[in-house]
Automatic annotation (TrEMBL):
It comes from the Bacteria. One of its GO terms (molecular function) is DNA binding. InterPro entries: Cro/C1-type_HTH, Lambda_DNA-bd_dom_sf. Signal peptide: none annotated. The lineage of its organism: Bacteria, Bacillati, Bacillota, Bacilli, Bacillales. This is XRE family transcriptional regulator.
Amino acid sequence: MAWFSLEKRRSKFGQFLDKHDLTQQIVVTKSGVSRNTISRLCQPKYEEGPTMKNARKIIKALRDITGKDIDYDDLWSM
């Protein structure tokens, strides 16, 4: 029996990327938001979300990539 889990702990945003089989790099490329920001937003301690400017860029990119109607609440807590 393992004493630890190999599964990554992820924020709501990170879980969304995993569920839709998206890489952080595709979001970086499509949104223009820095790799460091996207990586940080996938970590559970950053559940509060990005600036509104970056949130708009990320949401637009994810809508374009997935074809889904995505809202701020789908990715981050208010």
